[in-house]
Amino acid sequence: MVGTNLSEIDTELGKIALNIAPAKLIEEEKVREIIGGTRQDTVFAFIDELFYKKHVDAAVMLNDLLTNGQNEVGIVTLIARHLRILQQTQAGIAEGLRGQSLAQKVGVSPYFLTKYLQQANLWKPAQLEALLVRLAELDRQLKSSNLPSDYIS
Fold first, then answer.
1. What does pTM read for this prediction?
2. What is the three-class DSSP state of 98?
């Protein structure tokens, strides 16, 4: 609920201690009520979950992002960017590139290359292409519709 930031965890534990004492048993529902939506997932963490095929976690994170006001078009744009990086990673691997050469072709820091390699290996090129086509359609719908984003699929 609060992520891995130790300062945030400490703050939220303090809130729980103040609001639950002297109870000996702390129910999850009460904890959620006290700390509420403290954790705000980042778009980047969501995209990683999505491309690691952790779909349930990604769906929860997406809901959190949208609930906290993240722009839908911005999310779609960043997903498409990440997807294109995975496609470039797959193309570079097919060309026999590795390490620094691959990172340079893809346009990412070698620090992040391991993550992109792991994710690229989870997807077939045709799957990424189909997803990119669907994202382009979703982007068009979001930008051209007067309907709330909840109604666009």
1. 0.71
2. coil
